[in-house]
Give the backbone structure.
Amino acid sequence: MERVGTVAALRRLVPYLKPVRAGLIGSGAAVTAGMLSGLAIPLVLQWILDGPVAARDTGALPWPIVVVAALSALEALMFYLRRKLVAGPSTLVEARMRADLYAHLQRLPISFHDRWQSGQLLSRAISDLATLRRFIAFAGVFLVVNTITLVLGMVVLFSLSPALGLITLVCSLPLLLISTQFESKYAVLARRAQDQVGDLATVVEESVLGIRVLKAFGRGPQLAAKFLGQARRLRRTELGKFRVLSLLWGAIILLPELGIAAQLLIGSLGVADGTMTVGTLVAGITVAGFLRWPTDSIGWLLAEANQAATASTRYWEVRDAEVTITDPDRSRPLPADGVGAVRFEGVRFAHAGADHEVLSGVDLALRPGETVALVGPTGSGKSTLTMLVPRLADVTGGRVTVDGVDVRDLRLDDLRAVVAVAFEEPVLFSASVRENVALGSPGATDEEVREALRVAQAEDFVDRLPWGLDTRIGEEGLSLSGGQRQRLALARAVVGKPKVLVLDDPLSALDVHTEAEVERALRQVLSGVTALVVAHRPSTVRLADRVALLDGGRIVALGTHAELLATSAAYRAQLSTVEDERAEAAS
Amino acid sequence: MTAERDWRGVAAEDTEDVAAAVTMKLRARSRALLGSLLRPRFWPAMVVLLLVMLGNAAQLAGPLIVAAVIDVGIPNAVRGDGTVLAWCVVSYAVCSLASALLWMCFLRLSGRIGQDLVLDLRQRIFDHAQRLSVSFHETYTSGKVISRQSSDIDAFGDLLEVGIDDLLTSVLTVTGIAILLLTLDLELALVVLVTAIPLAFIARWFLRRSNEAYRGVSGRTATLIVHYVETMNGMRAVQAFRREGRNKSIMDGLNSRVRSSARDSLSVVAVFTMAVRMIGNLTMVAVLTIGALRVAGGSMELGVLTAFILYVRRYFEPLDDVAMFANSYSSAIAALEKISGLLEEKPDVPEPERPVPLPRRRDGGLEVEFAGTEFRYRPDTPVVLPELDLAIPAGQTVALVGPTGAGKSTIAKLVARFYDPTEGEVRLAGVDLRAVSDVDLRAAVVMVTQENFLFSGSVADNIALGKPGASRAEIEAAARAVGADEFIRALPDGYDTDVRKRGGRLSAGQRQVVAFARAFLADPAVLVLDEATSSLDLPTERIVQRALESVLADRTALIIAHRLSTVLIADRVLVVDQGRIAEDGAPETLIGKGRGPFADLHSAWQDSLA
């Protein structure tokens, strides 16, 4: 990956910072005001001690003490304002960036999500954005304020005595050089650490999601060893960061101190010569001392800026990913009297970057209201074909039409309103049953949801759940059996009364009894809609009016189950069971 | 924005309320964890302390040297004697060098200690989560384990990185100055030290509020993470069902809740730092007023007052750092509360303290026996298996059939010791499973379910999970045995093809065959198949079926399947109904009876194949 400069990476935050600039500037002003009143307090104190107190003049005391008290209160107030003013903007930027990332991820195609581990996407939404928030709230503000302080301090020093100014400057220049060097080294390490954190999250996720497999094979220790290895690598990277950081700190402490030592020497000689006054020397050293914190903080601030730049780069890496499946520039409406006719015309499909096609010229027409079963060997592209209808993937050649309109000419919302799908593994979210069923139609009434549940033969068991439709299911809620999950997925598919249904073998993972229940549900679900059903089993095929056999990226046979059994050897090989073979062998 | 209640629905664990007594217990628990982490690193930590003290001393020497230059060095130099000046400049340079070097050593050593602590904690969490039983993971979701390992570890790491050096420096400074003030002037010193009382109250308020705020942030972030991860993992459904809009409003709601908690926590810090600074500054004003009057009255020297005021300012400055430390400390403690909660969970199926070795494996596998075995998932749920007595001789292939919820999977899980029986025993070759070491048990018993989870890595890696260190030839032989060789070779990189996230590159059937190859490579004495053939297509199932017949020959096998074809290769069929064995016999015998549970099921299957 090409390394983007820190400044360039941070500059990409500008669109988010602009709307909240008032708060950020206010916070910077509060820092400055606090610093100035903090600086003024000792001056006034000095004046009181040298003046009225030394003169034992109690009558002149009240007013100066009021001034000190006022400055003291002002300083404390500025401490409050600096944080208070930045609290809103920094958290707002974080929330907005997260919302935009989330929205973008929802638009990115499935092919993107297949490539990216959710651990990596999560670390961008949580830890990277937290890094940016911290940067904006603290380091960013101080970076600006301290730089200004440094420049002003140098101007004061030079006007006091060019010689003293020059010494401080000469000591600061190598610091600048070291900092730049450090920046590039540190950025590489920071980036590596953040990636390693993401990888570690992936192993943790797998260790928990695959716990049954790990337990069944007793392979926990192997994965633990892998985890430990990765955690150690992360530790090494972090220690590398400390190494670089300690060198920088050494330089940051040493160089200004050596500058003061040189000032002492030159200044004292100057005083001895009579070319400089003691007052100037003391003032010079005082100003140099005042510049210590702004100089010291540069290392820390640069480190933060680097972390923030890395976080920004990682964030934009995802935001810059291209949304390849979009609404057309000029969309066409579906015909008002659409009946749900689906056609595949010379459809080709290849994965991005792959040199062979999964589908190489599929022609298939589904008549309105008809159920077509799609049969084919493992890996023949059945699931891919189903993804093309709701445009979860786009064809690389040919076209898919619904009621005569190319799906790519329809608005995605329009298309996906008429095409509903159910997947091989039903996806349930940690939300209420109602929310899971009315997934895409949050406006659906309870009656509509219930009707869908009835069609999918799921109403009875839902009513038996402790809180009915309000019961939370999914990972964080009540767990359901495979048959129950599958029926909910079917209910979800019919809730908006779609014209076209695409089902990726909804019966595959069920036992006989549950399969019978879901099959009954399916029969109802399929009536009156055009449906494409991926099937592995004769029982599923029997639900279909016609069967299409997909092999080698094309439809090689099309007809009723009985016709194909009679005419196609490939079909027989695909759908006959061990028992059938035994029977054949016996006869 | 959407209220959480609207979409999340209701679950039992929502009614959690943390009582005060519980909070105390949580605190004690997380402090104990912190102690156990720090104890082995006591001496390195002492070295760090020493480095900080020396570094501070070197830095504090600077102003004294400058004073010496002005008071002695310059006047001498004016008189023509530069020795003092030269010595001063050289010692200033040496002090700077020493302070820089000490600081570098400190950073590297404390960084190393911190990273070691983090590594130690990471490993403890990981190992413990792996030791915990499957039943635990069914209720404690993966998202929670992930946040223990990510955001909670981060909070702990922040404490180590941000806090310790500041805290050490601050404590040293404050103590030193307090002693100095007491020796300078008792009355004024008491004015300064009495501020400890309001400071203590403010600190208490701050710790409580910032702890609350932190809990809010982390709890709300956890909910956000669950929603986010589920959206990413269910993206197909999200897009196909136009869920994006609804998800966006849910996310906006979660996001703004997290934001308001984060803002609260920043505000608490803002108020606290202001209060500390205000108290410090007002104390200084009071010292100035009282001091000025006393100086005017002649009961105090001007020099003492000057020194006092300078020191008072430095006395209050580090308290800010203490506050920041307290803040990251309370975040870290809240995180440690949750981590220690996870670490405190006891495994339901503990390792035996004195394991009994299994007898050497004979050719035909090992005998499995249920003796008066009773099982229920939780004390408050009904009994799933009431007193099961069953003996499976070594080498026998047994098929379990029966309706969903009859207890077939429970029997399988008991054999693989995912659970322990609530009454009675499950024995392997005559040994109670609770007395068998995990290593022996996992080598002897392997279970394949329809949950064919693949780990990131290549196809070969996933098969090799069955036998770590297996050669490529062994892996390929296992794949050939289950008929997976052909499709694996057709993948772009063959056996080295990356299976991608959760095996997404392969179809469900292909993942299942890989899971089979994995089990065959493991070559266990007892093989348990729980619906393991259900997602195969027919041609693949035929191949697996043929392979099964030879693979099952020399081992004990327990098969749960709803496909007739799979059941028929068994030596013995058990029809399970409501946790009891309703019928037991060879499949041909049971079918031959004409009537009976298995004969009925058999005829239903025959119909479904037509």
Chain B touches chain A through 175 residues (CB under 8 Å). Chain B has 21 helices and ten strands. Residues 4-344 of chain B form a domain with the ABC transporter transmembrane region fold fold (CATH 1.20.1560.10). Residues 372 and 387 of chain B are 5 Å apart (CA to CA).
